[in-house]
């Protein structure tokens, strides 16, 4: 059974293998990482590519498992056929044995053959010879059928063994490929986590990749209702007290580093993810300037409200954001230019980011 490997080693454009990227993210000084926000962006995109590969691999694995299930069904059918042939062989051996016993019990003596050869055989002698001829013919037929059944049995046994060996090989390869993909994804996320920690993201005390900051699980946050995403599914920003969905946070950190390089300071954030209760509070306190609770992109962990100059349309900070934010998947929505006019509101779109 030919097996097609699911995993193809991947080296990101503009970088060495994932190991080197991880080493750079995990061992370089924090200031050096800060000077190269593209490094974080490349790690993020590599992690997202890994997620896509995992998704495609999962589909391939499911298809392969279906093939294995089909092979197992075919194997079961062959084994059933094999068992039936063995029963038939057992039945066919009985008349052959009985005919041999009959020949011994009713032998044709020489004195019966002599009259037959001289033409003086009586009815009893002729009947005995006829019986012998018939027994020999039946026996020959039984032997031929038995031989054919033996060959068919050997063929089915060989095919069953081949299917069994192929299934065992497929299962072993599946386990190896799944393990390789898992290790690769873990390594990428670990490298990305190290880079985030160096940039000021407080993930946890021991530096493990927190669930909420794992970009491979970013889409999982979308399984929760607007404003009801668990805290453990959100990734904190460098700005203390604020968080977003993992992919949005990682893209925002890259954007923030580019902004820091241009203006010498981090972006000022006044709001990010909003729980449903917070959306309700803002909606009643600022009517006309907040979405209906349960419909805000803040409740999806995909929007921020900014300050520090960005909130003023036409300012250097606002203009810079208009020119550069889409490079990191962030944009100023068209509705925020008109009604209500909200220059401080910016949103993240994974589709825009995937095209970069």
Automatic annotation (TrEMBL):
Stored SUPFAM superfamilies: Hedgehog/DD-peptidase
Alphabetized CDD domains for the sequence: Peptidase_M15 (cd14814)
Phylogenetic placement of the source organism: Bacteria, Bacillati, Actinomycetota, Actinomycetes, Streptosporangiales
Protein known as: D-alanyl-D-alanine carboxypeptidase-like core domain-containing protein
Bias (Low complexity) ranges: 15-32
Domain D-alanyl-D-alanine carboxypeptidase-like core span(s) in chain numbering: 243-350
Compositionally biased spans, kind Basic and acidic residues: 33-50
Gene3D superfamilies, per database record: 3.30.1380.10
Annotated spans, Disordered: 15-50
Organism: Nonomuraea rosea
